[in-house]
Every structure is written in structure tokens, then in C-alpha cells.
Amino acid sequence: MTTLLPPQAARTLLLSGQGLLDDPGRRVSSASVERLIQKLGFVQLDSIHRVERAHHLILGARLDGYRPELLDRLAFRQRALFEHWTHAAAYIPIALFPHWKPRFEARARQMRKRPWFKRRLGARPDRILGRVLARVTREGPLRATDFERRRERKSTGWWDWTPEKTALEVLWFGGRLAIAGRDGFEKIYDLVERVLPDAHAADPPSAEAQVEWAVSSALERLGSGTARELAGFWRAVTPAEAAAWCRRAVAQGRAVAVELGSARGGKPLAGFALPGWEELARRAPDPPDELRLLAPFDPVVRDRERAARDFAFDYVFEAYVPAPKRRYGYYVLPVLERDRFVARLDPRHDRERGALVVEGLWWEPGTRATAARRRALERALEKLAVRIGARMVELSSRSASS
Fold it and tell me: Which among 21, 65, 50 has a CA at the least distance from the CA of 345?
């Protein structure tokens, strides 16, 4: 009979694998940030700047003394990270670059077939791709804005890419270019062999080694999950390949088959866990006794279905939902207390006034807004304010009454 893995154990394994059981007050340096990203696997990038960019929020939730310049140093001076795509744009440890090589050519082909990209590349895509690559080869690092927009055509928005910008992205997805740096948040592209020469020279893994790495490393970081969830961690293998690996790993004693329980009492799902998961969960450190404000793209809530199963926490990112239809707010941060989500809040950074403004605060059903919890939330907001350079924290009348 398959063992039931209860949601409390699943939460502990997940929080441990995703760095949220470690002491957030530990010493911070480039090396400690690099170790954290290696533990996470990658850190997702996002351009929305309402509070702070997502990658800085993700790292700051785990390291109180985190500073954005540490990440920039790792990515663009030490070249300890490279930027590419998992389920979204991310910073990834450079040692993992060979595992992206099998995907480069397929990604470029996929992009060129998509109607959105075909329209923007124009009727002669090979010509525009060749011209852009030749110019980067000749001139060195370039931004999309270095390719002058035709004067008769004005920009109509963020996603109104020129053919040259589209070509740069296709060449980056295809592994011909790398991100050499950023000007603000604008990418600077250069030949991958100039930016990452050693990684570029490394051999790609075999198909078998790719599956072995993708699924085993996902299980290490998630602790448990379905085959589909394990495949979805890196987006490097199919669910069928992940399921086959899991069956082999169970036979070899490298994984165990379990029933994944639900925090809401629903029907358990067939899944897999690390061997000795009971002991791993029992010996895991206690969660830090403070509230943590997580980014909307934090790895703990990135898989919305898993967050609902493990934490009984329904989360929807509403930035792209029309304002009248939003239930909560534009950029809502989940509030983690030990191993439970107890609240969510909608903050914004008023940079002109130097204020972190909380537009809305909602306590989760069954959570009492005790004086101790409110003080803990105040401390968490003060930490966030310091990290983003705000001089004060303000609660709107709506959030103050919540």
C-alpha cells in the first residue's frame, strides 16, 4: 500500500528545498547569494517595478541583508549566472548552461513558427536574422534601441517589437546570443562565445543525462510532487519522460511512490518523494519565527495548483486583470508565517515620496489579526522598505482597518 504524504510534510520539504527554512539573518555576500540561487535552481526575472523587481523580492525574502548589486555582480561581472528561459526568464547558475544546449535549436524553431514572431520578423526572416547577427558580431554588445526604428513607424507599446528586437530575441532563445548586461532593465546582447566562452565550449548532455538531471534535481528542490510537477520545474523534459524516470527511480530506491494529501481534504494524488522523506521532514529546521513577504513569482507559489493543495492557498496574479475585476489588487504579495499563508497585501513603492504604501491588506480565513501578528507584519514591511530604499511605511485606510 502506498504511503500517504500529508500536506504538512510536503510544505516542510518544499520550504526546505526552496530556502525558506534557513536563517534569513545570516551573513550576506556574493557567495551566499550564489549559494542561494544554486539551492533554488534559478530565480525568476520580471520587469514589473511597482514595489521591486521580482528577482530581488525572491532573494530578499530569504536574505535580510540582500542588495540588488550582489545579483548584478554575479550575473555580469563574475559570470556566475546566465540569463535564459525556464518557464519564464530567469537567472540560472552557469554550471547548468550545458543543459540548455539541447533546447536552443528547438526553441528558435518554435519561435519562428509562431504567428506573433513571424509577423514581426517580416517576409524575409533569414535576412533580418543574418543582418542582426552580423552587426552584433562586427560591433560587439548591442541593445534593441541601437537598431534605429524606421522614422515612419512609431512605437505603439511595450510589446511592439521591431524586426530587429524580434531577431535579437530569436537569436538569444536559439543560443547564438547571450545577455551581456542590462541598461536599466533593457537587455544588452552579444555573441554567446564572447560572453560565456567556457560554458559555450562545454559539451551538451546526452538525452538520458538530460532527463536524469532535470527530474532528479527537481525532486531534490521540491521534495515531492507529481511527475507533471517535476517535469514543470525546469521545463526541460516532458511529463512522460519524468514519469518514466520516476518509475525507474522507485525501482532503484532513489525515489518512493506516495499519495500526495491535500490541505483541503481532497482526494490524494499519485506522486513521488525523496527516499526517507519522513525523516527529512522531521529533521528539517523549524521555520524562522517571523512573517515573510513573498513575490507573486516566488517558487513556493509559482505552481498555483500545488500552493492550493499544500497550503490551501488560492493565489491569482491580478496585474493583468482589469482593475474593476480584481479581487485583491495589482501586485499582491502572499504573507508567509512559518509554514502557512496568513495574509496577502497590495503594496506599491511611491518613489517620489520615499514611501512603501500598503493599498490593501487581507487576512486569510481562519487567521486572527492578533496584536502579535500585526507587529510581525509591521517588522516585515519595515524590512522591505529598507531593502527598496523607502523611508517610511504607510497603510491606507482600507488596509489599516483590515
Answer: 50
Please say whether the beta carbons of 189 and 136 come within 8 A: yes
Task: Note whether 175 and 84 are within 8 A (CB).
Answer: no
Set of cell numbers at residue 178: 547571450
Type of residue at 267: K
CA 299 to chain CA mean position, Å: 6
- Residue 168: name the closest of 185, 148, 143, 186 by CA: 143
- Grid look-up 536574505 returns 63
Distance between CA 381 and CA 347 in Å, rounded? 10
- Would you state the pLDDT for residue 156? 46
Spatial distance between the Cα atoms of 75 and 187, rounded to a whole number of angstroms:
13
Which conformational region is residue 366 in: left (phi greater than 0), alpha (psi within -120 to 50 degrees), or beta?
Answer: left
* Contact indicator for 210, 102 with CB cutoff of 8 Å: yes
Phi, psi of 212 (to 5 degrees): -55, -50
Q: How many whole angstroms separate alpha carbon 87 and alpha carbon 97?
A: 16
Write down the pLDDT at residue 402.
67
Among positive and negative, which fits the CA dihedral 325, 328, 330, 336? negative
Q: 360 is written with which cell numbers?
A: 490593501
Domains of the chain with CATH codes: 114-150+158-195 (1.10.10), 291-400 (3.40.630)
Cα distance between residue 330 and residue 333, in whole Å: 10
Q: What is the pLDDT of residue 157?
A: 47
- Residue 338's Cβ-count burial label (10 Å; 0-12, 13-18, 19+) is middle
β-strand 355-363 against 340-350: which pairing, if any? antiparallel
Which three cell numbers mark 187? 537587455
Q: How big is the CA angle at 92 (ends 88 and 93), to the nearest 5 degrees?
A: 170
Q: Residue 176's pLDDT is what?
A: 97
Question: Looking at residue 308, what DSSP letter applies?
Answer: H
Residue 264's identity, in one-letter code, is R
Q: Which residues of the chain have pLDDT under 50?
A: 151-152, 155-158
On whether the pTM is more than 0.90, the answer is: yes
